[in-house]
């Protein structure tokens, strides 16, 4: 598991359960429940690179769609509506992607 040692398995399970139904994902609630919201900027940057599956330095829409699967392979994909809302919340510069600094800001807000 990518987040081993950074996040508790029970927190990950609870956060995923909380948003198991389609259209129930809320990034602020998820980050709080999974334990990322209270992490250091350094830890959040590590988390960013787990989510950035193609190692491009940005989290693109297709990676956001599979965001929950970064935490557990059996988790659901986000709906298109959830994915677009998540991207809009994190894409501060409007380039259609979330960079590492945008991600750390998104998690901490």
TrEMBL record:
The positions making up the signal sequence are: none
Presence of the UniProt keyword ATP-binding in the record: no
Q: By its UniProt entry, which InterPro entries does this protein fall under?
A: EF-hand-dom_pair, EF_Hand_1_Ca_BS, EF_hand_dom, Parvalbumin
- Keywords for this protein: Calcium, Metal-binding, Muscle protein, Repeat
Annotated Ca(2+) 2 binding lies at 91, 93, 95, 102
By its UniProt entry, which SUPFAM superfamilies does this protein fall under?
EF-hand
What would you give as a GO molecular function for this chain, any one? calcium ion binding
Query: Could you tell me which Gene3D superfamilies the record lists for this protein?
Result: EF-hand
Q: Which PROSITE patterns match?
A: EF_HAND_1, EF_HAND_2
Q: Give start and end of each EF-hand domain.
A: 39-74
Which residues does the record give as Ca(2+) 1 binding sites?
52, 54, 56, 58, 63
Name one cellular component (GO) term. cytoplasm
Pfam families reported for this sequence:
EF-hand_7 (PF13499)
Family designation: Belongs to the parvalbumin family.
Biological role stated in the UniProt entry: In muscle, parvalbumin is thought to be involved in relaxation after contraction. It binds two calcium ions.
Q: Protein name, please? A: Parvalbumin
Q: Which species does the entry assign this protein to?
A: Salvelinus namaycush (Lake trout)
The protein's gene is named LOC120029749
């Amino acid at each position: 598991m990518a987040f081993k040692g950074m996040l508790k398995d029970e927190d990950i399970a609870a956060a995923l359960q909380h948003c198991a139904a389609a259209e129930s994902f809320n990034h602020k609630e998820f980050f709080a429940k999974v334990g990322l919201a209270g992490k250091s900027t350094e830890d959040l940057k590590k988390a960013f690179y787990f989510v950035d599956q193609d190692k491009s330095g940005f989290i693109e829409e297709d990676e956001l769609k599979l965001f929950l699967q970064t935490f557990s392979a059996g988790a659901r994909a986000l709906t298109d509506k959830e994915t677009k809302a998540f991207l809009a919340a994190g894409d501060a510069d409007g380039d259609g992607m979330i960079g590492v600094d945008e991600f750390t800001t998104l998690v901490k807000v």
